[in-house]
Specification:
About 30% of the residues lie in helices and about 25% in strands. It has about 170 residues and is an alpha+beta fold. The chain has a 4-stranded mixed beta sheet. A two-stranded antiparallel sheet has the order 1-2. Strands 4-5 form a two-stranded antiparallel sheet.
Length: about 170
């Protein structure tokens, strides 16, 4: 049994304000139309399109290389969103946003070590396999996000992971 939903809400998002969307305004020539891969991503697309303080945004327009110790290979991490926002004080902020369920979010302890979920209390093969898959996802996400934080630091962006907790605020 996979920790990923087999059926998820996906589709193509067509912005009402295409001039501020990197996927449509030509600022990223290789950008494809927005394909949301979850209802949460669709919520973020709608939010970005409608909010005046979001000056520009794009979905899956930024690719960051990273090395994964889980398979000893270099991969491309394609971020969910890039945004340019204007704060209340008028300052401009550039963000790279990842949308993930809380269960797949990497957490670090006070020493910066990755915290993995505890193994199952009743270890059946199915539960062990599921736990192992979940641990691999969290480790891979941590590797991607560390590369993203380094990229963002070098290029003047802020990296954020939004889970269902933060996205609930956008739905109100």
């Amino acid at each position: 049994m996979s920790i990923f939903a087999k059926e998820y809400n996906s589709g193509t998002f067509v912005p009402k304000n295409p001039e501020k969307c990197f996927n449509y305004n030509g600022q990223y020539p290789d950008a494809k139309p927005i394909t949301f891969r979850s209802s949460w991503e669709r919520i973020v697309c709608n939010f970005c399109d409608q909010q005046e303080n979001i000056l520009a945004y794009g979905s899956e327009v930024l690719s960051i290389p990273y090395y994964s110790k889980t398979d000893n290979k270099t991969h491309k991490y394609i971020t969910d969103f890039v945004m340019v926002t204007r704060s209340k004080d008028g300052s401009i902020r550039k963000l790279v946003i990842e949308i993930k369920p809380e269960s797949q979010a990497a957490r670090l302890d006070e020493h910066g070590n990755l915290i993995l979920p505890p193994p199952p209390k009743k270890p059946t093969q199915r539960r062990i396999n599921s736990w192992h898959e979940r641990c691999l996802v969290i480790m891979r996400n941590n590797e991607k996000w560390q590369a993203a934080r380094e990229y963002c630091h070098r290029h003047g962006y802020t990296f954020k992971v939004l889970t269902e907790k933060e996205l609930g605020i956008l739905c109100v």
